[in-house]
Amino acid sequence: MFSLMQNAALSCRGTGQAPRETKLMFLGLDNSGKTSLLALLNREPLSDVTSTIGFNAVKLRILDQPCEVYDVGGNARIRDIWPNYFAEVHGVVYVVDASDESRLNEARDALWSSLQHDYLSGKPVLVLVNKRDLTGSIDSRTIAQRLALNQLASMKNKSVLHVTDCTLTDSKRSRVAVLDGFRWLLQRVEEDLEILEPRRREQCALQAEQEARERSEKRERVRQQREARARQQEQ
Amino acid sequence: MGLLSLFRGMKGEKKDLRILLLGLDNAGKTTILKSLADEDITHITPTHGFNIKSVTSSGFKLNVWDIGGQRKIRPYWRNYFDDTDVLIYVIDSADQKRFEETGEELAELLEEAKLKGVAVLIYANKQDLHTAAKASDIATGLNLHTIRERAWQIQPCSAVTGEGVKDGMEWVIKTVSKKKKK
Ligand SMILES: Nc1nc2c(ncn2[C@@H]2O[C@H](COP(=O)(O)OP(=O)(O)OP(=O)(O)O)[C@@H](O)[C@H]2O)c(=O)[nH]1
Ligand SMILES: Nc1nc2c(ncn2[C@@H]2O[C@H](COP(=O)(O)OP(=O)(O)OP(=O)(O)O)[C@@H](O)[C@H]2O)c(=O)[nH]1
Ligand SMILES: [Mg+2]
Ligand SMILES: [Mg+2]
Protein backbone atom coordinates (compact mmCIF):
# COMPACT_ATOMS: atom_id res chain seq x y z
CA MET A 1 0.00 0.00 0.00
CA PHE A 2 2.74 2.38 0.97
CA SER A 3 4.56 1.99 -2.30
CA LEU A 4 1.37 2.37 -4.24
CA MET A 5 0.59 5.69 -2.71
CA GLN A 6 4.15 6.71 -3.30
CA ASN A 7 3.77 5.66 -6.91
CA ALA A 8 0.65 7.67 -7.31
CA ALA A 9 2.31 10.68 -5.78
CA LEU A 10 5.31 10.20 -8.02
CA SER A 11 3.19 9.90 -11.10
CA CYS A 12 1.60 13.20 -10.54
CA ARG A 13 4.67 14.97 -9.28
CA GLY A 14 5.14 18.35 -10.85
CA THR A 15 1.52 19.20 -10.50
CA GLY A 16 2.17 21.40 -7.48
CA GLN A 17 4.56 24.35 -7.19
CA ALA A 18 8.28 24.03 -7.90
CA PRO A 19 9.67 23.92 -11.45
CA ARG A 20 7.25 21.92 -13.48
CA GLU A 21 8.48 18.83 -15.21
CA THR A 22 7.17 17.87 -18.62
CA LYS A 23 6.47 14.17 -18.98
CA LEU A 24 6.93 12.69 -22.40
CA MET A 25 6.66 9.20 -23.75
CA PHE A 26 8.47 7.74 -26.74
CA LEU A 27 6.33 5.36 -28.76
CA GLY A 28 6.91 3.47 -31.98
CA LEU A 29 7.55 -0.05 -33.23
CA ASP A 30 10.63 -1.96 -32.15
CA ASN A 31 13.72 -0.92 -34.07
CA SER A 32 12.26 2.50 -34.94
CA GLY A 33 14.84 4.42 -32.88
CA LYS A 34 13.23 5.42 -29.56
CA THR A 35 16.17 4.50 -27.35
CA SER A 36 18.61 5.99 -29.86
CA LEU A 37 16.64 9.23 -29.66
CA LEU A 38 16.93 9.23 -25.90
CA ALA A 39 20.67 8.55 -26.13
CA LEU A 40 21.09 11.44 -28.55
CA LEU A 41 19.22 13.84 -26.26
CA ASN A 42 21.22 12.58 -23.29
CA ARG A 43 24.54 12.85 -25.17
CA GLU A 44 25.30 9.17 -24.83
CA PRO A 45 26.95 7.12 -27.58
CA LEU A 46 24.29 5.75 -29.92
CA SER A 47 26.34 2.60 -30.46
CA ASP A 48 25.50 1.36 -26.95
CA VAL A 49 21.78 1.09 -27.61
CA THR A 50 20.15 -2.35 -27.47
CA SER A 51 16.54 -3.31 -27.92
CA THR A 52 14.16 -2.57 -25.06
CA ILE A 53 11.84 -5.23 -23.68
CA GLY A 54 10.88 -3.17 -20.73
CA PHE A 55 10.86 0.35 -19.42
CA ASN A 56 13.27 3.11 -18.63
CA ALA A 57 12.64 6.57 -17.25
CA VAL A 58 15.17 9.32 -17.76
CA LYS A 59 15.16 12.82 -16.37
CA LEU A 60 16.88 15.37 -18.55
CA ARG A 61 16.66 18.92 -19.80
CA ILE A 62 15.42 19.38 -23.31
CA LEU A 63 15.86 22.95 -24.59
CA ASP A 64 16.22 24.02 -20.96
CA GLN A 65 12.91 22.51 -19.95
CA PRO A 66 13.12 19.86 -17.21
CA CYS A 67 11.61 16.71 -18.65
CA GLU A 68 11.10 13.12 -17.74
CA VAL A 69 11.00 10.70 -20.63
CA TYR A 70 9.51 7.22 -20.58
CA ASP A 71 11.11 4.89 -23.09
CA VAL A 72 9.36 1.56 -23.54
CA GLY A 73 9.81 -1.44 -25.77
CA GLY A 74 8.01 -1.41 -29.11
CA ASN A 75 8.08 -5.11 -29.87
CA ALA A 76 4.68 -6.73 -30.38
CA ARG A 77 5.42 -8.98 -27.40
CA ILE A 78 5.66 -6.02 -25.02
CA ARG A 79 3.57 -3.32 -26.75
CA ASP A 80 0.51 -4.03 -24.61
CA ILE A 81 2.14 -2.25 -21.69
CA TRP A 82 2.05 1.16 -23.45
CA PRO A 83 -1.38 2.30 -22.17
CA ASN A 84 -0.22 2.01 -18.57
CA TYR A 85 1.79 5.20 -18.99
CA PHE A 86 -0.65 7.29 -21.04
CA ALA A 87 -2.35 9.01 -18.13
CA GLU A 88 0.84 10.59 -16.84
CA VAL A 89 2.31 12.13 -19.95
CA HIS A 90 1.82 15.60 -21.40
CA GLY A 91 2.84 14.57 -24.88
CA VAL A 92 4.19 11.83 -27.10
CA VAL A 93 6.97 11.35 -29.59
CA TYR A 94 6.07 8.72 -32.13
CA VAL A 95 9.09 7.35 -33.98
CA VAL A 96 8.72 5.71 -37.38
CA ASP A 97 11.39 3.80 -39.29
CA ALA A 98 11.05 5.36 -42.74
CA SER A 99 13.35 2.76 -44.27
CA ASP A 100 11.03 -0.14 -43.50
CA GLU A 101 8.13 0.07 -45.92
CA SER A 102 6.92 -3.38 -44.92
CA ARG A 103 6.00 -2.27 -41.41
CA LEU A 104 4.20 1.01 -42.12
CA ASN A 105 0.75 -0.53 -41.70
CA GLU A 106 1.78 -1.94 -38.36
CA ALA A 107 3.18 1.48 -37.39
CA ARG A 108 -0.11 3.10 -38.42
CA ASP A 109 -2.18 0.67 -36.37
CA ALA A 110 -0.02 1.06 -33.26
CA LEU A 111 -0.28 4.86 -33.50
CA TRP A 112 -4.01 4.86 -34.12
CA SER A 113 -4.85 2.52 -31.28
CA SER A 114 -2.69 4.57 -28.92
CA LEU A 115 -4.31 7.88 -29.87
CA GLN A 116 -7.76 6.43 -29.56
CA HIS A 117 -7.06 5.58 -25.95
CA ASP A 118 -8.92 7.86 -23.52
CA TYR A 119 -5.80 8.78 -21.61
CA LEU A 120 -3.84 9.82 -24.68
CA SER A 121 -6.37 11.35 -27.04
CA GLY A 122 -5.99 15.08 -27.33
CA LYS A 123 -2.37 15.15 -26.23
CA PRO A 124 0.18 16.57 -28.68
CA VAL A 125 2.21 14.15 -30.78
CA LEU A 126 5.52 14.74 -32.52
CA VAL A 127 5.95 12.21 -35.32
CA LEU A 128 9.61 11.64 -36.12
CA VAL A 129 10.15 10.12 -39.54
CA ASN A 130 13.46 8.47 -38.76
CA LYS A 131 16.37 6.85 -40.61
CA ARG A 132 16.16 9.31 -43.47
CA ASP A 133 19.89 8.74 -44.05
CA LEU A 134 19.17 5.32 -45.51
CA THR A 135 18.77 5.20 -49.28
CA GLY A 136 15.25 4.36 -50.34
CA SER A 137 13.79 5.68 -47.10
CA ILE A 138 10.38 7.30 -47.44
CA ASP A 139 9.82 11.04 -47.03
CA SER A 140 7.62 12.50 -44.32
CA ARG A 141 4.81 13.52 -46.69
CA THR A 142 4.35 9.96 -47.85
CA ILE A 143 4.67 8.63 -44.32
CA ALA A 144 1.98 11.07 -43.18
CA GLN A 145 -0.32 9.62 -45.84
CA ARG A 146 0.53 6.04 -45.00
CA LEU A 147 -0.17 6.65 -41.30
CA ALA A 148 -3.39 8.44 -42.25
CA LEU A 149 -2.43 11.41 -40.10
CA ASN A 150 -5.00 13.68 -41.74
CA GLN A 151 -7.86 11.46 -40.68
CA LEU A 152 -6.31 11.12 -37.27
CA ALA A 153 -6.11 14.88 -36.89
CA SER A 154 -9.77 15.33 -37.77
CA MET A 155 -11.21 12.83 -35.32
CA LYS A 156 -13.15 13.70 -32.22
CA ASN A 157 -10.81 14.44 -29.30
CA LYS A 158 -8.10 14.93 -31.85
CA SER A 159 -4.46 15.30 -31.00
CA VAL A 160 -2.35 17.98 -32.64
CA LEU A 161 0.33 16.37 -34.75
CA HIS A 162 3.62 17.63 -36.07
CA VAL A 163 5.62 15.58 -38.54
CA THR A 164 9.31 15.95 -39.23
CA ASP A 165 12.13 14.04 -40.92
CA CYS A 166 15.10 13.00 -38.87
CA THR A 167 18.24 10.93 -38.72
CA LEU A 168 19.70 9.78 -35.44
CA THR A 169 23.47 9.98 -35.53
CA ASP A 170 26.01 11.41 -33.13
CA SER A 171 26.34 14.47 -35.38
CA LYS A 172 25.43 17.96 -34.31
CA ARG A 173 23.23 18.40 -37.33
CA SER A 174 21.11 15.47 -36.28
CA ARG A 175 20.70 16.94 -32.79
CA VAL A 176 19.63 20.30 -34.13
CA ALA A 177 16.97 18.77 -36.38
CA VAL A 178 15.59 16.67 -33.56
CA LEU A 179 15.53 19.60 -31.17
CA ASP A 180 13.49 21.60 -33.65
CA GLY A 181 10.82 18.96 -33.34
CA PHE A 182 10.97 19.07 -29.56
CA ARG A 183 10.68 22.85 -29.63
CA TRP A 184 7.30 22.45 -31.28
CA LEU A 185 6.22 19.73 -28.83
CA LEU A 186 7.27 21.56 -25.69
CA GLN A 187 5.66 24.80 -26.86
CA ARG A 188 2.48 22.97 -27.63
CA VAL A 189 2.44 21.39 -24.17
CA GLU A 190 3.00 24.82 -22.66
CA GLU A 191 0.12 26.32 -24.63
CA ASP A 192 -2.27 23.52 -23.76
CA LEU A 193 -1.17 23.21 -20.15
CA GLU A 194 -4.33 24.65 -18.64
CA ILE A 195 -6.31 21.86 -20.24
CA LEU A 196 -3.69 19.11 -20.10
CA GLU A 197 -2.68 19.46 -16.48
CA PRO A 198 -6.03 19.10 -14.68
CA ARG A 199 -6.94 16.28 -17.01
CA ARG A 200 -3.66 14.55 -16.32
CA ARG A 201 -4.13 14.91 -12.59
CA GLU A 202 -7.60 13.45 -12.73
CA GLN A 203 -6.51 10.51 -14.88
CA CYS A 204 -3.51 9.79 -12.66
CA ALA A 205 -5.78 9.67 -9.64
CA LEU A 206 -8.20 7.33 -11.42
CA GLN A 207 -5.38 5.07 -12.48
CA ALA A 208 -3.76 5.03 -9.04
CA GLU A 209 -7.08 4.03 -7.56
CA GLN A 210 -7.52 1.24 -10.06
CA GLU A 211 -3.97 -0.01 -9.55
CA ALA A 212 -4.44 -0.04 -5.79
CA ARG A 213 -7.62 -2.05 -6.15
CA GLU A 214 -6.00 -4.56 -8.50
CA ARG A 215 -2.99 -4.90 -6.25
CA SER A 216 -5.04 -5.68 -3.17
CA GLU A 217 -7.17 -8.18 -5.08
CA LYS A 218 -4.02 -9.83 -6.35
CA ARG A 219 -2.59 -9.95 -2.85
CA GLU A 220 -5.67 -11.66 -1.57
CA ARG A 221 -5.56 -14.27 -4.34
CA VAL A 222 -1.90 -14.99 -3.63
CA ARG A 223 -2.63 -15.34 0.07
CA GLN A 224 -5.34 -17.89 -0.65
CA GLN A 225 -3.10 -19.82 -3.03
CA ARG A 226 -0.38 -19.97 -0.43
CA GLU A 227 -2.76 -21.20 2.25
CA ALA A 228 -4.16 -23.85 -0.08
CA ARG A 229 -0.65 -25.05 -0.84
CA ALA A 230 0.28 -25.13 2.84
CA ARG A 231 -2.82 -27.24 3.59
CA GLN A 232 -1.93 -29.61 0.77
CA GLN A 233 1.55 -30.08 2.15
CA GLU A 234 0.20 -30.85 5.63
CA GLN A 235 -2.02 -33.62 4.34
CA MET B 1 28.55 -4.49 -29.66
CA GLY B 2 29.27 -1.19 -28.00
CA LEU B 3 30.40 -2.91 -24.83
CA LEU B 4 33.98 -1.99 -25.55
CA SER B 5 33.16 1.68 -25.48
CA LEU B 6 31.44 1.16 -22.17
CA PHE B 7 34.51 -0.57 -20.86
CA ARG B 8 36.67 2.36 -21.89
CA GLY B 9 34.30 4.69 -20.10
CA MET B 10 34.80 2.72 -16.92
CA LYS B 11 38.57 3.12 -16.76
CA GLY B 12 39.73 3.60 -13.22
CA GLU B 13 36.29 2.95 -11.84
CA LYS B 14 35.12 0.03 -9.83
CA LYS B 15 34.48 -2.86 -12.16
CA ASP B 16 33.19 -5.35 -9.62
CA LEU B 17 29.45 -5.65 -9.75
CA ARG B 18 27.36 -7.28 -7.10
CA ILE B 19 24.39 -9.04 -8.58
CA LEU B 20 21.57 -10.60 -6.65
CA LEU B 21 19.80 -13.55 -8.28
CA LEU B 22 16.37 -14.13 -6.75
CA GLY B 23 13.12 -15.79 -7.68
CA LEU B 24 10.77 -18.56 -6.57
CA ASP B 25 12.00 -22.11 -6.05
CA ASN B 26 12.35 -24.06 -9.29
CA ALA B 27 12.62 -20.89 -11.42
CA GLY B 28 16.08 -21.89 -12.64
CA LYS B 29 18.41 -19.53 -10.77
CA THR B 30 21.13 -22.05 -10.08
CA THR B 31 20.91 -23.43 -13.59
CA ILE B 32 21.34 -19.92 -15.01
CA LEU B 33 24.33 -19.28 -12.78
CA LYS B 34 26.00 -22.52 -13.87
CA SER B 35 25.20 -21.81 -17.49
CA LEU B 36 26.84 -18.37 -17.18
CA ALA B 37 29.95 -20.01 -15.78
CA ASP B 38 29.85 -22.68 -18.53
CA GLU B 39 29.48 -25.45 -15.97
CA ASP B 40 27.60 -28.73 -16.15
CA ILE B 41 23.88 -28.24 -15.49
CA THR B 42 22.74 -31.85 -15.24
CA HIS B 43 22.85 -32.42 -11.47
CA ILE B 44 21.29 -29.38 -9.89
CA THR B 45 19.29 -29.71 -6.68
CA PRO B 46 17.20 -27.10 -4.85
CA THR B 47 19.38 -24.56 -3.09
CA HIS B 48 19.05 -24.47 0.69
CA GLY B 49 21.54 -21.71 1.37
CA PHE B 50 23.23 -19.73 -1.37
CA ASN B 51 25.86 -19.99 -4.11
CA ILE B 52 28.29 -17.26 -5.17
CA LYS B 53 30.12 -17.22 -8.44
CA SER B 54 32.34 -14.64 -10.07
CA VAL B 55 31.93 -14.48 -13.79
CA THR B 56 34.00 -12.20 -15.97
CA SER B 57 32.24 -10.50 -18.83
CA SER B 58 33.46 -7.61 -21.00
CA GLY B 59 36.06 -6.65 -18.43
CA PHE B 60 33.63 -6.67 -15.55
CA LYS B 61 33.78 -9.03 -12.64
CA LEU B 62 30.23 -10.02 -11.86
CA ASN B 63 29.81 -11.42 -8.39
CA VAL B 64 26.54 -13.24 -8.59
CA TRP B 65 24.70 -14.34 -5.45
CA ASP B 66 22.19 -17.11 -6.04
CA ILE B 67 19.90 -17.64 -3.09
CA GLY B 68 17.40 -20.44 -2.55
CA GLY B 69 13.81 -19.54 -3.42
CA GLN B 70 11.76 -21.96 -1.35
CA ARG B 71 9.08 -20.23 0.65
CA LYS B 72 10.65 -20.94 4.02
CA ILE B 73 13.99 -19.50 2.86
CA ARG B 74 12.59 -16.30 1.33
CA PRO B 75 12.67 -14.33 4.60
CA TYR B 76 16.47 -14.66 4.49
CA TRP B 77 16.75 -12.89 1.12
CA ARG B 78 16.99 -9.60 2.96
CA ASN B 79 20.34 -10.58 4.47
CA TYR B 80 21.87 -10.18 1.03
CA PHE B 81 20.51 -6.79 -0.07
CA ASP B 82 23.48 -4.57 0.82
CA ASP B 83 25.41 -2.92 -2.02
CA THR B 84 23.42 -4.61 -4.74
CA ASP B 85 24.15 -3.15 -8.18
CA VAL B 86 21.48 -5.02 -10.07
CA LEU B 87 18.67 -7.32 -9.09
CA ILE B 88 18.08 -10.25 -11.40
CA TYR B 89 14.72 -11.85 -10.85
CA VAL B 90 14.20 -15.25 -12.43
CA ILE B 91 10.80 -16.64 -13.34
CA ASP B 92 9.63 -19.88 -14.87
CA SER B 93 7.78 -18.47 -17.91
CA ALA B 94 5.86 -21.69 -18.38
CA ASP B 95 4.44 -21.70 -14.86
CA GLN B 96 1.67 -19.15 -15.37
CA LYS B 97 -0.16 -20.41 -12.29
CA ARG B 98 2.53 -18.85 -10.15
CA PHE B 99 2.89 -15.48 -11.92
CA GLU B 100 0.89 -13.67 -9.28
CA GLU B 101 2.79 -15.29 -6.44
CA THR B 102 6.15 -14.45 -7.96
CA GLY B 103 4.84 -10.97 -8.73
CA GLU B 104 3.93 -10.49 -5.08
CA GLU B 105 7.39 -11.58 -3.93
CA LEU B 106 8.96 -9.17 -6.41
CA ALA B 107 6.67 -6.32 -5.34
CA GLU B 108 7.78 -6.85 -1.74
CA LEU B 109 11.42 -6.82 -2.81
CA LEU B 110 10.98 -3.57 -4.69
CA GLU B 111 9.63 -1.92 -1.55
CA GLU B 112 12.88 -2.62 0.30
CA ALA B 113 14.78 0.56 1.08
CA LYS B 114 18.12 -1.12 0.37
CA LEU B 115 17.05 -1.96 -3.16
CA LYS B 116 15.74 1.50 -3.92
CA GLY B 117 16.39 2.55 -7.50
CA VAL B 118 18.24 -0.69 -8.29
CA ALA B 119 17.52 -1.76 -11.87
CA VAL B 120 15.77 -5.10 -12.38
CA LEU B 121 16.40 -7.66 -15.06
CA ILE B 122 13.71 -10.30 -15.33
CA TYR B 123 15.01 -13.53 -16.79
CA ALA B 124 11.90 -15.03 -18.38
CA ASN B 125 13.44 -18.47 -18.16
CA LYS B 126 12.46 -21.85 -19.66
CA GLN B 127 11.63 -20.39 -23.06
CA ASP B 128 12.45 -23.79 -24.52
CA LEU B 129 9.16 -25.01 -23.05
CA HIS B 130 6.69 -23.84 -25.72
CA THR B 131 4.07 -22.83 -23.15
CA ALA B 132 6.18 -19.80 -22.22
CA ALA B 133 4.19 -16.55 -21.83
CA LYS B 134 4.78 -13.41 -23.86
CA ALA B 135 6.64 -10.47 -22.34
CA SER B 136 3.63 -8.19 -21.88
CA ASP B 137 1.75 -10.93 -20.00
CA ILE B 138 4.74 -11.41 -17.75
CA ALA B 139 4.92 -7.65 -17.21
CA THR B 140 1.25 -7.54 -16.21
CA GLY B 141 1.39 -10.68 -14.08
CA LEU B 142 4.37 -9.31 -12.21
CA ASN B 143 2.91 -5.78 -11.98
CA LEU B 144 6.00 -4.38 -13.70
CA HIS B 145 3.89 -1.71 -15.38
CA THR B 146 3.45 0.08 -12.07
CA ILE B 147 7.22 0.58 -11.68
CA ARG B 148 8.41 4.13 -12.30
CA GLU B 149 11.48 4.72 -10.18
CA ARG B 150 13.84 2.22 -11.78
CA ALA B 151 14.57 0.63 -15.15
CA TRP B 152 13.40 -2.88 -15.89
CA GLN B 153 13.92 -5.24 -18.76
CA ILE B 154 12.56 -8.67 -19.57
CA GLN B 155 15.09 -11.06 -21.08
CA PRO B 156 13.57 -14.23 -22.48
CA CYS B 157 16.06 -17.06 -21.96
CA SER B 158 16.64 -20.73 -21.48
CA ALA B 159 19.22 -21.83 -18.97
CA VAL B 160 19.16 -25.26 -20.60
CA THR B 161 20.01 -24.15 -24.12
CA GLY B 162 21.91 -21.07 -22.93
CA GLU B 163 19.89 -18.86 -25.26
CA GLY B 164 19.42 -15.27 -24.06
CA VAL B 165 21.43 -15.68 -20.86
CA LYS B 166 24.45 -13.69 -22.04
CA ASP B 167 22.23 -11.03 -23.65
CA GLY B 168 20.69 -10.38 -20.27
CA MET B 169 24.11 -9.84 -18.75
CA GLU B 170 24.92 -7.35 -21.46
CA TRP B 171 21.89 -5.28 -20.46
CA VAL B 172 22.99 -5.54 -16.82
CA ILE B 173 26.48 -4.24 -17.53
CA LYS B 174 25.26 -1.45 -19.73
CA THR B 175 22.64 -0.29 -17.30
CA VAL B 176 24.90 -0.32 -14.27
CA SER B 177 27.86 1.31 -15.90
CA LYS B 178 25.67 4.15 -17.12
CA LYS B 179 24.43 4.71 -13.60
CA LYS B 180 27.90 4.58 -12.06
CA LYS B 181 29.19 7.24 -14.40
CA LYS B 182 26.71 9.71 -12.97
N1 LIG C 1 20.68 4.24 -40.26
C1 LIG C 1 20.03 4.62 -39.17
N2 LIG C 1 19.90 3.76 -38.16
C2 LIG C 1 19.22 4.17 -37.07
C3 LIG C 1 18.70 5.47 -36.95
N3 LIG C 1 18.10 5.58 -35.75
C4 LIG C 1 18.24 4.38 -35.13
N4 LIG C 1 18.92 3.53 -35.92
C5 LIG C 1 19.26 2.13 -35.63
O1 LIG C 1 18.07 1.39 -35.48
C6 LIG C 1 18.21 0.35 -34.52
C7 LIG C 1 17.10 0.38 -33.50
O2 LIG C 1 17.22 1.52 -32.67
P1 LIG C 1 16.63 1.57 -31.20
O3 LIG C 1 16.87 2.95 -30.70
O4 LIG C 1 17.11 0.44 -30.39
O5 LIG C 1 15.08 1.33 -31.51
P2 LIG C 1 13.89 1.27 -30.44
O6 LIG C 1 12.76 2.02 -31.06
O7 LIG C 1 14.35 1.72 -29.11
O8 LIG C 1 13.53 -0.28 -30.45
P3 LIG C 1 12.88 -1.16 -29.24
O9 LIG C 1 13.65 -0.87 -28.02
O10 LIG C 1 13.04 -2.58 -29.68
O11 LIG C 1 11.45 -0.78 -29.15
C8 LIG C 1 19.59 0.53 -33.91
O12 LIG C 1 20.46 -0.37 -34.51
C9 LIG C 1 19.95 1.96 -34.28
O13 LIG C 1 21.34 2.14 -34.42
C10 LIG C 1 18.88 6.37 -38.05
O14 LIG C 1 18.45 7.52 -38.07
N5 LIG C 1 19.55 5.87 -39.13
N1 LIG D 1 13.14 -26.83 -19.55
C1 LIG D 1 13.89 -26.07 -18.76
N2 LIG D 1 14.14 -26.42 -17.50
C2 LIG D 1 14.91 -25.63 -16.74
C3 LIG D 1 15.45 -24.42 -17.24
N3 LIG D 1 16.18 -23.84 -16.27
C4 LIG D 1 16.08 -24.66 -15.20
N4 LIG D 1 15.32 -25.73 -15.47
C5 LIG D 1 14.97 -26.83 -14.57
O1 LIG D 1 14.20 -26.32 -13.51
C6 LIG D 1 14.51 -27.00 -12.29
C7 LIG D 1 14.90 -26.02 -11.20
O2 LIG D 1 16.13 -25.39 -11.53
P1 LIG D 1 17.06 -24.73 -10.41
O3 LIG D 1 18.17 -24.05 -11.14
O4 LIG D 1 17.40 -25.68 -9.36
O5 LIG D 1 16.05 -23.68 -9.81
P2 LIG D 1 16.33 -22.64 -8.62
O6 LIG D 1 15.66 -21.37 -9.01
O7 LIG D 1 17.77 -22.54 -8.34
O8 LIG D 1 15.52 -23.29 -7.43
P3 LIG D 1 15.80 -23.13 -5.83
O9 LIG D 1 17.25 -23.36 -5.62
O10 LIG D 1 14.95 -24.11 -5.17
O11 LIG D 1 15.41 -21.73 -5.48
C8 LIG D 1 15.63 -27.98 -12.64
O12 LIG D 1 15.04 -29.23 -12.86
C9 LIG D 1 16.20 -27.42 -13.93
O13 LIG D 1 16.76 -28.42 -14.76
C10 LIG D 1 15.17 -24.07 -18.60
O14 LIG D 1 15.59 -23.04 -19.14
N5 LIG D 1 14.38 -24.92 -19.30
MG1 LIG E 1 14.40 0.86 -27.25
MG1 LIG F 1 18.88 -22.96 -6.70
Automatic annotation (TrEMBL), chain B:
Keywords: Golgi apparatus, GTP-binding, Lipoprotein, Magnesium, Metal-binding, Myristate, Nucleotide-binding, Protein transport, Transport. One of its GO terms (molecular function) is metal ion binding. It is found in: Golgi apparatus. GO terms for biological process: cilium assembly; protein transport. Mg(2+) binds at T30, T47. It comes from the Eukaryota. NCBIfam families: small_GTP. Belongs to the small GTPase superfamily. Arf family. This is ADP-ribosylation factor-like protein 3.
